[in-house]
Amino acid sequence: MNVSPPRYSLVLPIYNEEQVLPRLIERISSLIGRLDGETEAIFVDDGSLDGSVEYLRNVVAVEPRFRLIELSRNFGHQVAITAGMDAAAGDAVIVMDADLQDPPEVVLDLVAKWKEGFEIVYARRVKREGESWFKRITASLFYRLLEKMTSVDIPRDVGDFRLVGRKALETFKQMPEHDRFVRGMFAWMGFKQTAVPFERPARNLGQTKYPFWKMMHLAVHGIVSFSEKPLRVALWGGLAISALAVVFGTYAIFAWIFETGVIAGWTSIVVIVSLLCGINLFMTGVVGLYVGGIHAEVKRRPLYVIDRVAGFDKAMRAASDSRRPFRKPRNGASADGRTLRQL
Ligand code: UDP
Ligand code: MG
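A: This is the predicted complex of the input protein with uridine-5'-diphosphate.
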């Protein structure tokens, strides 16, 4: 094992977090002071529209342990995390939300578990404060549904607050999928995994960036990218309905032959046709989700585009990592839109 002290990377996705940033920087700095190894904090600006970037640029300019990746636009939480992890140089990488709902102090517990030999350590929410009952119920339903539908054991009540070791990180980097459901991807890869419980406080500043439709989107993609069950539902559902249709059809024919004067029921036709149309459309939609996923993959676009980076020339390079894309930006100029995945 390492004799030299471990190196840590913190990855923080930032999307319009202007209000939280001063407190966040404070808390992160004090966390860095308490960690037992060299630590870098990588802020990934996910196309913020407020003053977040300017604030971070100023902080990164004076604080040698902070680094900044500015994505060229909003790519979404899951991709922002990926960009940060791709650039991380530490032996252990910790991903956490920037809104202080993932308390920085919990990182110490994650690190302790990592030192016991766990490659992936999740922070499990045992209590969610300040979240509406609606969010709590939908989240809980989602985790249970996910558990039922997927073949991979995706841990319940676990978000993206986690620590991963180098081996898991390198594995993650080899997973190019566009449809990213990061927590599922880590569950999939195996290794020794464990969870550390924590109480999730309310977001006290700023707004949640996950409105209902975004949550739905994440939920649907979580299921579609980790389960073929919806496709099978289409198959069996279609078969069952066809069987019913045969039975009913037979009855209708006999009725037509033996019951004189019966005019075929208009109502039943309308009911059946509309029912079948509905199911058909639904199932086409299910198939479409998967086809859409394939479409996104075959385009082979890079996952994200980096506008500019700052702070990476300061120290701490990953000795083992050949994919590190960052060169010292020329005169602080933008890193010409190169993307990590192209390199
Ligand atoms: N975030 C991001 N890009 C987005 C949406 C969110 O980088 O498109 C970041 C956000 O700044 C925060 C984290 O992802 O650090 C989690 O977002 P949020 O707190 O809004 O989610 P919630 O805790 O409500 O699920
Ligand atoms: Mg939050």
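Confidence is low (pLDDT under 50) at residues 318-343. DSSP finds ten helices and eight strands in the chain.
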